[in-house]
């Protein structure tokens, strides 16, 4: 039986942008035989976002979810990787539209291989780690405000950092982890808190990312 705390934790770990990207990928593939509808599906879903950070996150997640979908489709398709397959055409067309948008907003993400993007499941796992950190630090607000060093970071600064890292997921697995590690290194937290909360979170995130990275595409 789920407790209220468990339900709340699962709700925090759920990322609606990635869920929407997965639903959009399925919607695009459902319309695969109607090439004229692909752009309409893509544009109508993309238009839901106004924030540049959310737009990047959606585009990057959609690219990954489309790749996950087509890889799954190829295991049952009679003609895998055949450009005459309607799903292969829909995938190629959609990826091109996404790359065009990314080229205009962030060429570095556009050039990165899809395998370096976070899938919905991977993003939820990372968010769960960040939320666990926030929950554990929340009980130490007073200590954090007195134990931070000359860097002048406060409890609110650290909470803001964790929220900001959720919007940085489009950076990709390796770049995101490097940024996360660097940002935490610059926070002057008491060594006891760092050892009990920060270092275990870094280890968790590192293991999650390393286990899903394809070294050939680094």
| Tally of contiguous helical segments | 11
**Helix and strand string, N-terminal first?**
HHHHHHHHHHH
What proportion of the residues is helical, as a percent range?
over 70%
Which overall shape is indicated by the principal axes computed on the Cα atoms? elongated
Tell me the structural class.
Answer: mainly alpha
Strand content: under 5%
Give the integer mean of the pLDDT values: 80
List the domain count as a whole number: 2
The parts where pLDDT drops under 50 for at least 5 residues are 1-13, 147-151
Q: What is the terminal-to-terminal distance?
A: 42 Å
Biggest sheet statistics: none
Q: Write down how many β-strands occur, each being a DSSP E stretch of 2 or more residues.
A: 0
Radius of gyration: 20 Å
Task: Please characterize this protein's 3D structure.
The protein has 218 residues and is an all-alpha fold. The chain has two domains: 9-111, no CATH class; 120-217. Helices cover 72% and strands 0% of the residues. Mean pLDDT is 80; it is low at 1-13 and 147-151.
Notable traits:
disordered N terminus; 11 helices; 218 residues; 2 domains; mainly alpha
Short description:
The chain is mainly alpha-helical and about 220 residues long. The chain has 11 helices and no strands.
């Amino acid at each position: 039986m789920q407790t209220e705390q468990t339900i709340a934790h699962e709700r925090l770990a759920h990322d609606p942008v990635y869920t929407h990207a997965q639903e959009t990928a399925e919607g695009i593939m459902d319309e695969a035989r109607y090439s004229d509808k692909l752009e309409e599906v893509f544009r109508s879903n993309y238009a839901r976002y106004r924030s540049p950070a959310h737009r990047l996150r959606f585009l990057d997640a959609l690219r990954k979810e489309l790749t996950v979908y087509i890889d799954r489709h190829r295991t049952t398709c009679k003609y895998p990787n055949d450009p005459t397959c309607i799903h292969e055409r829909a995938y190629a067309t959609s990826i091109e539209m996404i790359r065009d948008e990314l080229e205009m907003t962030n060429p570095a993400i556009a050039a990165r291989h899809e395998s370096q993007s976070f899938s919905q499941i991977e993003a939820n796992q990372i968010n769960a780690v960040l939320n666990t950190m926030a929950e554990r630090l929340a009980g130490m607000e007073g200590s954090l405000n007195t134990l931070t060093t000359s860097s002048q970071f406060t409890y609110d600064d650290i909470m803001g950092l964790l929220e900001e890292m959720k919007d940085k997921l489009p950076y990709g697995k390796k770049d995101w982890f490097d940024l996360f590690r660097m940002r935490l290194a610059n926070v002057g937290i008491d060594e006891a808190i760092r050892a009990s909360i920060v270092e275990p979170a870094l280890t968790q995130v590192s293991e999650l990312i390393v286990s899903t990275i394809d070294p050939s595409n680094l």
